[in-house]
Write a structure and sequence with these properties.
- The protein is built from 14 helices and 5 strands.
- By secondary structure, the chain is mainly alpha-helical.
- It is globular, with a radius of gyration of 25 Å.
- The strands form 2 sheets. Strands 1-2-3 form a 3-stranded parallel β-sheet. It has a two-stranded parallel sheet with strand order 4-5.
- α5 crosses α8.
- The structure holds tryptophanyl-5'AMP.
- Tryptophanyl-5'AMP binds next to β1, α2 and α8.
């Protein structure tokens, strides 16, 4: 018996040595594997916590964020410092920050794989914004169309924060040296400015401190239009609730808003023509995006359909995609407030640590006593 077991252990010895060698090799690589070092780059994006998020935010941004979690390191911010460029009721803002966190998670942002936090919890955003602001010519800010739209005729009364908003946005991205920024089409100009600011800073100190962030304007619905007016962007600030579908809307509300959406009457069948049929084209774009197919594919079954039949089909698809998200947001807000707070705190801790590394480098370069 003894001899047998000796023979046995002698026989397996080389294999066990081999196995332990493999394990040692693997464990050395484990931190890198866990940290996902094979990922392609760092993604940063954010949404303002001003009221409930809508279908445009989902299709233009958050759905892309969810998809990028497998391939990239991801940081998703609730940009509350941006929100106060327009006065916010403090209680409503606090609630909205939590609802936005719940919305990210309900849409599929996974706090185990992505960092989720609120911007004001990481002071580095404001600090880097100041430093970058000292490298941003006024002429660049004067070109920003969003400021012109938002300030409108009352430009003299517009607050400084609204004007310097794009510099803060550049700081958000550059603080983490993000390489990719998934956003809707309306943020394109701000991202071009962020690249210009990064370039200006790098040139000033003759160092490649910041990578030039790549805008990712992806998916079939990068500019979702209002359900009441096909020439206007779907927006939180539109006074008509029927102009947008909130991610917190229940199934009945989603259906009602789609059935009441503006549509033309003078054409036969349903087909895409953004110029002549902006509202129907917008609804087709939404359907295609929700089904993850091209517009040509989405419109095929409706060549001979009327508006009602088409809208009913769209409502079915919208309800089946969006109402589980809405139910989950409601559940998180009702039952999981402590959990949501802990996700934000954990996210802010991680972001603060990452931001300090960049800030130290920046302090050194600009000549502060690091
Ligand atoms: P915000 O809060 O206006 O919008 C959040 C995201 O939703 C996209 N979006 C849309 N996409 C398609 N159709 C629409 N109708 C629609 N409306 C909004 C926006 O393009 C955006 O991606 N400045 C940003 C927030 C921000 C940010 C950042 C983004 C601050 N810092 C750094 C990226 C990186 C804003 O106000 O987004």
């Amino acid at each position: 018996m003894k001899t047998k077991s000796k023979q046995y252990s002698a026989r397996i010895m080389p294999f066990s040595v081999f196995l332990s060698f493999i394990l040692v090799q693997l464990s050395a690589k484990l931190p890198a594997i866990m940290a996902g070092n094979q990922k392609e780059g760092l993604v940063f994006s954010g949404v303002q916590p001003t009221g409930n998020l809508h279908l445009g935010n989902y299709l233009g941004a958050i759905r892309q964020w969810v998809r990028m979690q497998d391939s990239h390191h991801c940081i998703y911010c609730i940009v509350d410092l941006h929100a106060i460029t327009v006065f916010q009721n403090p209680e409503a803002l606090r609630e909205s920050i939590l609802t936005t966190a719940a919305t990210y998670i309900a849409c599929g942002v996974d706090p185990k794989r992505s960092i989720i936090f609120n911007q004001s919890a990481v002071p580095g955003h404001s600090e880097l914004a100041w430093i970058l602001g000292c490298h941003t010519p006024l002429g660049w800010l004067n070109r920003m169309t969003q400021f012109k739209e938002k300030a409108g005729k009352h430009r003299e009364n517009a607050v400084l924060g609204l004007y310097s908003y794009p510099v803060l946005m550049a700081a958000d991205i550059l603080l983490y040296k993000a390489t990719h920024v998934p956003v809707g089409e309306d943020q394109k100009q701000h991202l071009e400015l962020a690249r210009d600011i990064a370039g200006a800073f790098n040139r000033a100190y003759n160092q490649d401190v910041f990578p030039l962030p790549e805008p990712l304007i992806l998916g079939g619905a990068t500019r979702v239009m209002s359900l009441r007016d096909g020439s206007k962007k779907m927006s939180k600030s539109d006074e008509s609730d029927f102009s947008r579908i909130h991610l917190t809307d229940d199934a009945d509300t989603i259906r009602r808003k789609i059935m009441k959406a503006k549509a033309d009457m003078e054409f036969d069948g349903i087909y895409y023509d953004a110029e002549k049929r902006p509202e129907i084209s917008n609804l087709l774009t939404i359907l295609a995006a929700l089904q993850d197919v091209s517009v040509e594919e989405a419109q095929k079954p409706f060549a001979n359909a009327g508006n009602k039949e088409f809208k009913e089909a769209l409502a079915d698809v919208a309800v089946s995609t969006l109402s589980p998200i809405s139910t989950e947001i409601q559940r998180l807000i009702r039952d999981e407030r402590t959990y949501l707070m802990s996700i934000l705190e954990e996210g802010a801790d991680k972001s603060r640590k990452l931001s300090e590394v960049t800030l130290q480098e920046v302090h050194q370069l600009v000549g502060f006593l690091a």
